[in-house]
Amino acid sequence: MALSTETGTTGQSPTPSGAEFFDVHGPADNRVVGTLPNHSPEQVAVMAAELRAAQPAWEDLGPDGRAKTLRSWLDWVMDNEQRLLELVQRESGKSWGDTAIETMVAVEVINYVTKHGAKWLADQDHRPHSASQATKRLRVHARPYQLVGVITPWNFPLGMPMMDVPGALMAGAAVLSKPSEVTPLAWAEAVRGWREEIGAPPVLACATGLGGTGAAVVDLVDMIQFTGSTRTGRAIGIRAAERLIPSSLELGGKDAMIVLADADIDRAVGGAIWGGLFNSGQACISVERVYVQAPVYDEFVQKLTEKAAAIRQGTDTDKSYSNDIGAMATEAQVDIVDRHVKDAVAKGARVLTGGTRGEQGFYYPPTVLVDVDHTMDCMREETFGPTLPVMKVDTDEEAIRLANDSPYGLAGSVWTADPERAERVARQLETGGVTANNVLASVFQFPLPMGGWKSSGLGARFGGPYSVRKYCRNQAFVSERLSLKSEMNWYPYTPAKSRIMGRVIRLLGLHDWRRRLGLKANG
Q1: Theoretical Cys-Cys bridge with 355: which of 147, 351, 384, 465, CB 3.0 to 4.6 Å?
Q2: Which residue, 300, 297, 318, is CA-closest to 308?
Q3: Residue 32: strand pairing partners
Q4: Is 459 left (phi over 0), alpha (psi -120 to 50) or beta?
Q5: Structural domains of the chain ordered from first start
Q6: Among the ranges 55-69, 305-319, 474-488, which has the highest mean pLDDT value?
């Protein structure tokens, strides 16, 4: 039974009688587009217990068995792609072009982790560190956390959980997911597909609801992967520390774009437009501030303003691709954007295009701001909206200093025709990822870590084997090459054994022959 746009199921056991529900509103016109259970902590605890009971058999399937199930899920997702994307658009208000990327994430991530998972999860053999330990065999076992929690935000309803959940499942963990209450419909349906339509083991569940639901998830899992605001991430990190469980936190960003005088200006302008306005600026690695060197500043601003003014905004439900960007997800987010623009104008900035919120729905037009500085909220706080504040700089050093003048450090970009200059600037930026002559590119380079510095988070989302092994505990395993009745260092202690051990340590551990033989260093 597919998810209804009026009422929903998350693929769990039947919702208990008397359960509370909450409505999901579409930001394009604020109408109700779905209703889902507001799961109580007690209901979340039941889900967690069921997942834990199913996890051992899932782990025992081995990497190849788990990969087969994940690929079946991918087939189901793509067979139901249009319906899932319609849910995404309905609950998020995106343009169809911005919506369509979400199933691409599922294809890329599931294929990546299933292709390499068996190799990454294989036992790792290590050589002893010295000759004194030569009788030992050393091995590391990758054992999954039994229950992983994945809490995701509202900006990519399907794509964001697809970035994390497949890796945890591939590791052999069970996953208790919690999508944002703003946009839970598409993910709830994807989980229903796993649980009801592909014959998968019941090791994936979706808890829907408000803040209490998310808090219950954090309190019940063995490891938490969270994506969202720095404020909420800090609270989750504190709670995880109190429970002594690991947390991976991908938080806010204020990504800087540095355009140097030798850059290809047309490409840089195109990158700024897409990097700053994609998904109405609602991406953690959106371009949030632009620093342009003086010789090309006027040309850059002119072309940027022309392109921004030409962006088509609206929610094209007919899949005509007649709009480039859609609505913002919440009225509160529109309020933040509006506040940042008004604060900038009050402090001397000029609006070259946009700058006034839409009259209907949660829309804010593409907005270019100039004459900005770091006293303004638009240059200091995360905006998470379709604004492009542009600041003139003179030198590479000034651009680097201003880019680093931020509590955030998630990603950024450098634009120059000189590869060595690009890397030199990148090495001085205090951010987890830097792209040369492109935007938003580092997030989908799965062999590389995607993680934030400073207030942008802890840990990383991807990073080759880490994409899966982050959801595992390392178990050290030591075995013996020789079968001896006793060890030299076991009881009872004797003078003879002590002398032998002392000589062996000197012989194998010191670095000149006099000391090895127990002689004085100076003869």
Answers
A1: 351
A2: 300
A3: 25
A4: left
A5: 41-121+136-251+465-473 (3.40.605.10), 255-444 (3.40.309.10)
A6: 55-69
Q: Residue 133: helix, strand or coil by DSSP?
A: helix
Return the percentage of the chain with pLDDT > 70, whole number: 96
Helix or strand holding residue 507 (H, E): helix 495-509
C-alpha R_g of the chain:
27
Contact 7, 19 (CB under 8 A): no
Tell me which DSSP letter residue 371 carries: S
- pLDDT for 15 equals 55
Q: What whole-number distance in Å separates Cα of residue 279 and Cα of residue 406?
A: 23
Tokens standing for 396? 């590479």
DSSP string, 249-314: EE----EEEEE-TTS-HHHHHHHHHHHHHGGGG-STT-EEEEEEEHHHHHHHHHHHHHHHHT--BS
Buried b (16+ CB within 10 A) or exposed e, 368-381: bbbbbeeebbbbbb
CA distance 430 to 411: 9
pLDDT band (50, 70, 90) for residue 16 = low
Residue 241's pLDDT is what? 98
The pairing of beta strand 412-415 with beta strand 255-259: parallel
Q: Is the distance from CB of 383 to CB of 288 less than 8 angstroms?
A: yes
Q: What is the pLDDT of residues 253-278, one digit of tens each?
A: 999 999 999 999 999 999 999 999 99
Q: Integer distance in angstroms from the first to the last C-alpha of the chain?
A: 88
Q: Does residue 77 contact residue 106 with C-beta atoms inside 8 Å?
A: yes
**Which helix (H) or strand (E) is 195 found in, with range?**
helix 185-196
**387-398 average pLDDT score:** 98
pLDDT score of 521: 57
Instruction: Identify the burial level of 30 via C-beta atoms within 10 angstroms of its C-beta, where 0-12 means exposed, 13-18 middle and 19 or more buried.
Output: middle
Q: Where are the beta strands (DSSP E) in 121-229?
A: 124-126, 136-144, 147-151, 174-178, 204-206, 223-227
Which residues are catalytic, by number? Answer: 250, 284
